[in-house]
Design brief:
By secondary structure, the protein is of the alpha/beta class. The protein is 62% helix and 7% strand. It contains 14 helices and four strands. The chain has a four-stranded parallel sheet, sandwiched between helices. β3, α12 and β4 form a beta-alpha-beta unit. The protein is globular, with a radius of gyration of 21 Å. The termini are far apart.
Length: 338
């Protein structure tokens, strides 16, 4: 509806609006288009992390942004030239980025994972203010990538196909094309991971790429024991699970961001925040409409940043459920006897 009205106001006529479907991992436009889009999304995620790292770690952030902008333009041009040209340009990009002087190492700074509703986690107007505040405190704000959502939709697709095969049996699944669709999924998964692996292998030696939990099957498997069953397909399934995995892998806090009144955002907060507070993990939930945060929200971000700086991951290694955690889970109806 928004785009229909936007096109009408702009006077655009005869415009066809294609709404892609997450249930098939947005595959409506065909294999070639999907491959180009995937490469672009992977590059966007990794270079967003690089830019954030330079804003935090570079001795001269202004000069580093000039270099970054030049590198990014060259990488975008190479994307049009095909995979081989992209591979060559990525190596040149890594060399240029590696030469930027830094005042600290990425592995030595505390990190916060920013999760939440897919439509705001990559909107600059939604995440820039909290990112700038965290950077000013010496904290790395890792915004979860768009590719994470695609990995989750792939997982959900696989989950549905496996369920159909178990209900129908092998013979009927072969006849109905379920087994074929599972094979297609497996090929796509291998190819996507190959593309990500190539980009990661080139850029990680620069020291500008943060570690982030990546195994979606393991993440959702662990998350389903604490948070939301994978039968419910939404951001509220993946975000709490990724946040928990990040905290157990060395992050120092999780920020949840969503539009005002967003149900998935409220659900993410409702299931993750009690789990985090029971373990004394720093957690912050924000709702954003693109306007600057009022003073009371800014104060909450300041307190969150202070808690992140005080937090030591080694002092909060996950142990058995505490009485506080059990009480929180009972109150939420999440107690499962574990």
């Amino acid at each position: 509806m928004f785009f229909d009205r936007l096109f009408e106001e702009m006077g655009w006529e005869n415009v066809v609006l294609l709404v892609a479907n997450s249930e098939n991992s947005y595959r409506e436009m065909g294999a070639t288009f999907n491959q180009d889009v995937w490469r672009a999304l992977v590059l966007g995620d990794y270079f967003t992390d690089v830019r954030t790292s330079l804003r935090l770690l570079a001795k001269d952030p202004v000069d580093s942004m000039v270099v970054f902008s030049s590198v990014w333009r060259d990488v975008m041009k190479s994307l049009l030239g095909g995979p081989k040209e992209l591979d060559r340009e990525l190596k040149r990009a890594a060399e240029r980025l590696d030469r930027i002087p830094r005042k600290a190492r990425l592995e030595d700074v505390p990190k916060v994972l920013i999760v939440g509703e897919i439509y705001v986690r990559r909107d600059n107007f939604s995440v820039d203010e909290i990112s700038e505040m965290l950077i000013s405190k010496g904290i790395y704000p890792k915004v979860t990538g768009v590719t994470e959502w695609f990995h989750y939709t792939d997982f959900a697709r696989k989950f549905i196909l496996e369920g159909r095969r178990k209900r129908q049996g092998w013979l009927r699944s072969v006849r109905d094309g379920v087994v074929k669709e599972e094979a297609v999924y497996l090929v796509e998964k291998i190819w996507k991971e190959h593309v990500e692996g190539k980009v990661s292998k080139v850029l990680e030696p620069t020291g500008l790429i943060p570690h982030v939990p990546h195994d979606m099957g393991k993440i959702i498997g662990q998350g389903s024991k604490q948070f939301v069953d994978p039968e419910m397909e939404s951001e509220a399934t993946v975000s709490p699970a990724v946040g928990a995995a990040a905290m157990e892998e060395g992050y120092s806090g999780v920020a949840i961001i969503a539009p005002f009144g967003c149900l998935p955002g409220r659900l993410i907060e409702g299931v993750y925040a009690p789990w985090a507070k029971a373990r004394e993990y720093p957690v912050l939930a924000l709702e954003n409409d693109g306007q600057p945060y009022p003073p009371n929200i800014v104060s909450r971000i300041e307190v969150f940043a202070h808690n992140v700086l005080r937090f030591k991951a080694t002092d909060h290694v996950r142990k058995g459920a505490t009485w506080r955690e059990l009480a929180e889970r009972v109150a939420l109806g999440l107690f499962n006897g574990n």
